[in-house]
Amino acid sequence: MVLFAFSVFVLNAQDPSLTVIANSKGAPAELKFAELKSILKGEKQRWPDGTKILICLMKTNTAAGTTTSRKVYNMSGDDVNKFWLALVFQGKAPAPSFFNSMSELETFVAQNSGAIGVVTQTTGTEAKTISIDGKKTF
Predict the structure, then answer these.
(1) 72 to each of 4, 23, 25, 64, 76, how far by Cα in Å?
(2) Do the Cβ atoms of 121 and 129 come closer than 8 Å?
(3) Cα–Cα distance between 138 and 120 in angstroms, integer?
(4) What pLDDT, on a 0 to 100 scale, did the predictor assign at position 5?
(5) What is residue 6's predicted lDDT score, i.e. its pLDDT?
(6) How far apart are CA 44 and CA 1, in angstroms?
(7) Which residue from 96, 11, 102 is spatially nearest to 62, judged by alpha carbons?
(8) How far apart are CA 64 and CA 17, in angstroms?
(9) Does the pLDDT at position 129 exceed 60?
(10) Helices and strands (H, E) in the chain, number of each type
């Protein structure tokens, strides 16, 4: 039992911290984690100012995508892909944009109104960092 608890701690300790970034138009400076999940699951599709939310994620086969799948969606990367396929097929939400590199994701977020993304590190683009429950990373 102690070995199991230790291995779970080691696995969680190896997960990199995630940072939420957004375009300067639309997103507030801070969100609750529950609000973030609602946005990233396609439940909330507009910012308070009416701007359409554009979800940007790392591909689920990347390290950052795997971490996002686990921490935000509580799913495997394959399950996140299936989740989004089902939502899009049912017409409930537009598909997120998936990226191979964090710099591509950050550039897209910085250049597109309403965009929000999740990264493990920022590269210093013009996208703003969104605090989650008062913290810069989670």
Answers:
(1) 23, 20, 23, 12, 11
(2) no
(3) 10
(4) 43
(5) 42
(6) 41
(7) 102
(8) 9
(9) yes
(10) 5, 6
Backbone angles phi, psi at 113, to 5 degrees: -55, 135
Check: CB of residue 15 under 8 Å from CB of residue 67.
yes
State whether residue 45 is helix, strand or coil: coil
Which residues, listed in sequence order, are joined to residue 129 by a DSSP beta bridge?
Answer: 21
Please give the C-alpha separations between residue 30 and each of 27, 55, 129, 137, in angstroms, as whole numbers.
8, 16, 9, 12
pLDDT digits (tens, 9 = 90+) for 3-14: 444 444 444 456
3-class SS letters over 48-98: CCCCECEEEEECCCCHHHHHHHHHHHCCCHHHHHHHHHHHHHCCCCCCCEE
Whole-structure pTM value:
0.87
Order of strands across the sheet with 54-58? 30-31, 128-132, 19-22, 115-119, 54-58, 97-99
**What SS3 state is found at 135?**
strand
* Per-residue pLDDT reduced to its tens digit, 9-33: 444 456 789 999 999 999 999 999 9
